Automatic annotation (TrEMBL):
Protein name: AsnC family transcriptional regulator
Record-annotated HTH asnC-type domain positions: 5-66
InterPro entries (UniProt xref): AsnC-type_HTH_dom, Dimeric_a/b-barrel, Tscrpt_reg_AsnC-like, Tscrpt_reg_AsnC/Lrp_C, Tscrpt_reg_HTH_AsnC-type_CS, WH-like_DNA-bd_sf, WH_DNA-bd_sf
SMART domains: HTH_ASNC
Keywords from the named record: DNA-binding, Transcription, Transcription regulation
Gene3D superfamilies (UniProt xref): 3.30.70.920, Winged helix-like DNA-binding domain superfamily/Winged helix DNA-binding domain
Length: 153
Protein backbone atom coordinates (compact mmCIF):
# COMPACT_ATOMS: atom_id res chain seq x y z
CA UNK A 1 0.00 0.00 0.00
CA UNK A 2 1.35 3.40 -0.99
CA UNK A 3 2.20 5.84 1.77
CA UNK A 4 0.64 9.29 1.59
CA UNK A 5 3.25 11.90 0.83
CA UNK A 6 2.77 15.63 0.50
CA UNK A 7 4.77 18.03 -1.65
CA UNK A 8 7.31 18.71 1.12
CA UNK A 9 7.92 14.95 1.57
CA UNK A 10 8.50 14.64 -2.18
CA UNK A 11 10.97 17.54 -2.18
CA UNK A 12 12.89 15.94 0.70
CA UNK A 13 12.95 12.59 -1.09
CA UNK A 14 14.19 14.24 -4.27
CA UNK A 15 17.04 15.87 -2.34
CA UNK A 16 17.96 12.61 -0.61
CA UNK A 17 17.96 10.76 -3.93
CA UNK A 18 20.18 13.43 -5.48
CA UNK A 19 22.69 13.31 -2.60
CA UNK A 20 21.94 11.57 0.66
CA UNK A 21 25.16 12.89 2.19
CA UNK A 22 23.70 16.41 2.40
CA UNK A 23 23.30 17.78 5.90
CA UNK A 24 19.85 18.33 7.35
CA UNK A 25 20.55 22.05 7.20
CA UNK A 26 21.26 21.86 3.45
CA UNK A 27 18.14 19.82 2.74
CA UNK A 28 15.98 22.11 4.88
CA UNK A 29 17.31 25.19 3.07
CA UNK A 30 16.69 23.65 -0.36
CA UNK A 31 13.12 22.56 0.44
CA UNK A 32 12.22 25.78 2.26
CA UNK A 33 11.84 24.41 5.77
CA UNK A 34 13.80 24.15 8.99
CA UNK A 35 15.93 21.30 10.27
CA UNK A 36 13.60 19.74 12.88
CA UNK A 37 10.54 19.33 10.62
CA UNK A 38 12.75 17.88 7.87
CA UNK A 39 14.29 15.40 10.35
CA UNK A 40 10.82 14.41 11.61
CA UNK A 41 9.60 13.82 8.06
CA UNK A 42 12.67 11.74 7.19
CA UNK A 43 12.22 9.68 10.38
CA UNK A 44 8.52 9.16 9.59
CA UNK A 45 9.32 8.06 6.01
CA UNK A 46 11.95 5.62 7.33
CA UNK A 47 9.47 4.16 9.80
CA UNK A 48 6.86 3.87 7.03
CA UNK A 49 9.32 2.01 4.80
CA UNK A 50 9.51 4.73 2.13
CA UNK A 51 13.22 5.23 2.81
CA UNK A 52 14.80 1.79 2.94
CA UNK A 53 18.45 2.69 3.51
CA UNK A 54 21.15 5.17 2.55
CA UNK A 55 24.12 3.92 0.59
CA UNK A 56 26.96 5.01 -1.70
CA UNK A 57 26.83 4.54 -5.47
CA UNK A 58 30.07 3.18 -6.90
CA UNK A 59 31.46 3.34 -10.43
CA UNK A 60 31.57 -0.26 -11.66
CA UNK A 61 34.11 0.43 -14.41
CA UNK A 62 36.44 2.25 -12.01
CA UNK A 63 36.37 -0.94 -9.94
CA UNK A 64 37.26 -3.09 -12.96
CA UNK A 65 33.74 -4.46 -13.49
CA UNK A 66 33.54 -3.48 -17.14
CA UNK A 67 31.09 -6.10 -18.47
CA UNK A 68 27.37 -5.97 -17.85
CA UNK A 69 25.34 -8.99 -18.94
CA UNK A 70 21.60 -9.43 -18.99
CA UNK A 71 20.94 -13.11 -18.46
CA UNK A 72 17.63 -14.58 -19.63
CA UNK A 73 16.73 -17.82 -17.90
CA UNK A 74 14.09 -20.36 -18.82
CA UNK A 75 13.45 -23.27 -16.53
CA UNK A 76 11.40 -26.41 -16.77
CA UNK A 77 11.45 -26.65 -12.97
CA UNK A 78 8.71 -24.87 -11.05
CA UNK A 79 8.75 -26.72 -7.74
CA UNK A 80 9.22 -24.82 -4.49
CA UNK A 81 12.48 -26.62 -3.65
CA UNK A 82 14.06 -25.73 -7.01
CA UNK A 83 12.98 -22.11 -6.62
CA UNK A 84 14.39 -21.99 -3.08
CA UNK A 85 17.77 -23.28 -4.30
CA UNK A 86 17.76 -20.93 -7.29
CA UNK A 87 16.93 -17.84 -5.24
CA UNK A 88 19.55 -18.81 -2.64
CA UNK A 89 22.16 -19.17 -5.39
CA UNK A 90 21.29 -15.73 -6.80
CA UNK A 91 21.38 -14.03 -3.41
CA UNK A 92 24.80 -15.50 -2.67
CA UNK A 93 26.35 -14.30 -5.95
CA UNK A 94 27.63 -10.70 -5.63
CA UNK A 95 27.82 -10.45 -9.43
CA UNK A 96 24.00 -10.48 -9.59
CA UNK A 97 22.90 -6.87 -9.20
CA UNK A 98 19.25 -7.49 -10.03
CA UNK A 99 17.04 -10.52 -10.50
CA UNK A 100 13.43 -10.44 -11.67
CA UNK A 101 10.82 -13.17 -12.16
CA UNK A 102 8.95 -12.47 -15.38
CA UNK A 103 5.65 -13.16 -17.05
CA UNK A 104 5.95 -14.58 -20.56
CA UNK A 105 8.41 -16.90 -22.32
CA UNK A 106 11.39 -16.01 -20.11
CA UNK A 107 11.14 -17.02 -16.45
CA UNK A 108 13.89 -14.82 -14.97
CA UNK A 109 16.17 -11.99 -16.01
CA UNK A 110 19.39 -11.17 -14.18
CA UNK A 111 21.63 -8.15 -14.38
CA UNK A 112 25.17 -9.41 -13.84
CA UNK A 113 28.25 -7.18 -13.50
CA UNK A 114 31.68 -8.78 -13.97
CA UNK A 115 35.17 -7.85 -15.17
CA UNK A 116 34.98 -9.59 -18.56
CA UNK A 117 33.58 -12.52 -20.55
CA UNK A 118 35.82 -15.01 -18.76
CA UNK A 119 34.47 -13.81 -15.40
CA UNK A 120 30.94 -14.18 -16.75
CA UNK A 121 31.70 -17.77 -17.76
CA UNK A 122 32.98 -18.49 -14.25
CA UNK A 123 29.73 -17.07 -12.85
CA UNK A 124 27.67 -19.10 -15.35
CA UNK A 125 29.49 -22.36 -14.59
CA UNK A 126 29.02 -21.83 -10.86
CA UNK A 127 25.31 -21.09 -11.28
CA UNK A 128 24.54 -24.15 -13.41
CA UNK A 129 26.50 -26.34 -11.01
CA UNK A 130 24.18 -25.22 -8.19
CA UNK A 131 20.80 -25.39 -9.93
CA UNK A 132 19.41 -27.06 -13.01
CA UNK A 133 18.46 -24.57 -15.73
CA UNK A 134 16.71 -25.42 -18.99
CA UNK A 135 18.00 -22.52 -21.10
CA UNK A 136 20.27 -19.53 -20.54
CA UNK A 137 20.82 -16.63 -22.92
CA UNK A 138 23.42 -14.02 -22.01
CA UNK A 139 23.28 -10.60 -23.63
CA UNK A 140 26.30 -8.29 -23.31
CA UNK A 141 25.41 -4.64 -22.86
CA UNK A 142 27.48 -2.68 -25.37
CA UNK A 143 26.62 0.71 -23.87
CA UNK A 144 24.75 1.86 -20.80
CA UNK A 145 22.43 4.56 -22.08
CA UNK A 146 20.60 5.30 -18.85
CA UNK A 147 21.00 3.98 -15.33
CA UNK A 148 19.49 5.58 -12.29
CA UNK A 149 18.38 4.76 -8.80
CA UNK A 150 16.21 7.90 -8.68
CA UNK A 151 12.49 7.15 -8.49
CA UNK A 152 10.03 9.68 -9.90
CA UNK A 153 8.59 11.20 -6.71
Amino acid sequence: MAVRLDEMDRKILAELQADASQSLDEIARKVGSSKTPVWNRIRRMREAGVILRQTALLDAEALGLEACFFVLIRTSEHEAEWQRKFLKALRERPEVLEAHRLAGDIDYILKVRVANARAYDTFYQALISEVRIYNVTALLSMEEIKATTVLPV
